[in-house]
Amino acid sequence: MSFVTLERIRGARGRIRDVAKVTPLIDVSDVAGTPLQLKCENLQPGGAFKIRGAYNMVAQLPDAERRRGVITYSSGNHGQAVAIAARAVGVPSVVVMPTTAPKIKVDGARKFGAEVVFEGTTTLHRKARAERIASERGLTMIPPFDHEWIIEGQGTLGLEILEQCEDVRTILGPIGGGGLISGVAAAIKQGRPDIAVIGVEPAGAASMKNAIDAGEVRTLETVSTIADGLMAVRPGDLNFAHVRRFVDRIVTVEDHEIAAAVRWLFERAKIVAEPSGAATVAAALREGARFEPTVVAIVSGGNLDPADAAKYLSVGA
User: Fold this and answer.
1) Is-contact 93 121, C-beta < 8 A?
2) pLDDT tens digits, one per residue of 64-97
3) Range of the domain at 59
4) Distance CA 123, CA 143 (A)
5) Of 75, 105, 112, 184, which has the fewest beta carbons less than 10 angstroms from its beta carbon?
6) Which residues pair with 250 in a beta bridge?
7) Does 163 share its domain with 260?
8) The model's pTM
9) Distance CA 159, CA 136 (A)
C-alpha cells in the first residue's frame, strides 16, 4: 500500500494555489466555552473542501485524457468541485448524483457547467452508473475519495491548519468515504505526530469506524443520516489504510447533535454550514473538554438548502 507523502501534499498545494482558497481559521472559543477554532472550508469555490482534491487530480491528467472530458459520482459537493475544475481547464464534465441530492447541490453542479445524471441513493449505485457512462463515452473518472491525487489535494488543508494555528493539539475532521481525513491526517502526522487527529462520522453512517473496528473494509447494508455528504456505505480502500495508519480515533455523532450544531454555527458563530460540515462541531460541542486544546474543527461545507436551513434553525426556537 502506497501512502501519500508530505512532499506530494506540498506539491499539490502549489498545483491548486490559483483555484482553491486559503480559507480562514476563526476563533470561537468565547462562545464555545472551550478553546475551539473553525477551519471554514464552506468558503471554498463550490462551498466545500472538495475543490482541493478535484482540481489536483484534473490538473495532473494527461492532455489526451483530459480533453475527452471527465466524470464523477457524488452526493453533491465533489460533483460541484469537479465541474469547477473541468471548467477551469476548459473540458466537459458529467456528474452522477443520487436521486435524493439536495437541490442546491444539483443546481450548483449545473451552474458550473456539468451535465447531471441521477442514479439511485447510495455511493455504489452512482459509482456503477458513472463507470458505465465513462466506458461508453471515453471519459476519465475523477473519484470522490479513493485515489492518491484526491488525498494529496485534501491534505493541503492540513498544511494550512499547521500554519494558521501553531498551538493546535487536536484536529476534528469529518468522514464520508475518507478522502479528507486521509489527506489531513497524512499531512499532520508526517509533520507533527504529537497532534491528535480525530475522525467524526454520523452514527447512522459510520462506515469507516465499522471498518476500523472489523480490521477490514466492509459495506454497510443501510445508512441513514441528515449529513448527505457523509453517507458512504463503504470507505475507500486507500482511505481505510491511511486512517488506520494516521488517525488516532473515530467518534460518532447523532443526527440531533448535528442539527443542533448547524443552528449553533448560524446563531453563535455566524457561519452557514450544511449538516456534513457541522458534524465536527457537534463533536466539539459535546466532547470539547475531553479533547486536548486547542481544538480545530473542520467545517467542511456550507451548501445548505434554504428549506433545510429553516427546519434546522427552528428546532428548539
Assistant:
1) no
2) 999 999 999 998 999 999 999 999 999 999 999 9
3) 51-141
4) 11
5) 112
6) 199
7) yes
8) 0.96
9) 39
Rg of the chain on CA atoms, in Å: 18
* Neighbouring residues of 12: CB distance < 8 A, sequence distance ≥ 6: 52, 56, 149, 152, 153, 155, 156
1 assigned to some structural domain: no
**Which residue, 125, 141, 157, sits at the end of a domain?**
141
Boundary (domain end) residue, out of 141, 169, 185: 141
Task: State the pLDDT at residue 15.
Answer: 98
| The C-alpha cell that represents 283 in the structure block | 463533536
What are the backbone dihedrals phi and psi of residue 299, each rounded to the nearest 5 degrees, phi first?
A: -90, 95
CATH number at residue 283: 3.40.50.1100
The CB-side HSE value for 84 (13 A sphere, CA atoms) comes to: 26
**Percent of the chain scoring above 90 in pLDDT:** 93
| Between 302 and 314, residue with greater pLDDT | 302
DSSP 243-284: HHHH--EEEEE-HHHHHHHHHHIIIII-----HHHHHHHHHH
- In the sheet that holds 70-73, the strands lie side by side as 115-118, 93-97, 70-73, 140-141
What's the 3-state SS for 194-248? Answer: CCEEEEEEEHHHCHHHHHHHHCCCCCCCCCCCCCHHHCCCCCCHHHHHHHHHHCC
